Amino acid sequence: MKILALETSTEFGSVALLDGDRLVERQVAGRPGHSETILPEVLALLREAGVGLHDVDAIAFGAGPGAFTGLRLACGVAQGLAMGIGKPVIPVGTLEALASQCDRDFVFVAADARMSEVYFAAYQRQDGSLREYAPPACAVPADVRLPPEGEWFGFGSAFRAYREALVAGLGPRLAGFDESPIPLASSVARLAAGRFRRGEVIDAALAAPLYVRDKVALTTAERLARGGKA
Asked: Where is the Gcp-like domain (predicted)?
């Protein structure tokens, strides 16, 4: 089984190929969106792995939530490549991919959503796999809340961007946090492999990013109300 994965939901893009037990990953350089560099990196990745594009069984992508431009790029590139070789695509939630990089049993993912907001979700690890405990949502840092029961480990860039407000709002059931992780294409590939085995693939034409908010920018009044600049 060979899974090609794309992850460009943040400014730190990456591509990966999972070939059986072998995993090869490359960073995607460039400004947010990575539109100029993602295809050359995919081709370089395949050359490095010694695998042809037509040998790939499915193409996975980080579906979001995340940067709108990056999500559309990953989805569009995955669709184009998959249609060209007649293979399916596998959307993988960005927050789930991020949670899979944490070794705790109760993971509260909180990623910087820009516009003074946070993307967040909760996952529980059971028998080596992740279960979605609370679905992805978006809120201002002071309004983000943990699930009603249990102690949770915070994971994601929001703990760096909005540490004071976020930690205060989450309260004493936050058992600690790591502000450094970013979603990786390798994580997308691993999760996609499980979906592929279960037959959880879709036709490329049906692929779409996951958005949990509709607005891509704030008005001047909204920025000022959140402590930003006019």
From this structure: 33-145
Enumerate residue ranges in the chain where pLDDT < 70: 30-33, 214-230
* Element (DSSP H or E) covering residue 99: helix 94-99
Q: Give pLDDT, residue 31.
A: 57
Q: Contacts from 81-85 at CB under 8 Å and sequence distance 24+? A: 81/4, 81/42, 81/53, 82/58, 82/204, 82/207, 83/204, 83/205, 84/53, 85/53, 85/54, 85/56
Q: In what order do the strands lie in the sheet with 129-139?
A: 129-139, 118-126, 106-112, 152-155, 174-178
Structural domains of the chain ordered from first start: 2-93+183-206 (3.30.420.40), 102-178 (3.30.420.40)
Instruction: Round to whole Å and give the CA distance between 179 and 82.
Output: 34
The reported pTM is 0.90
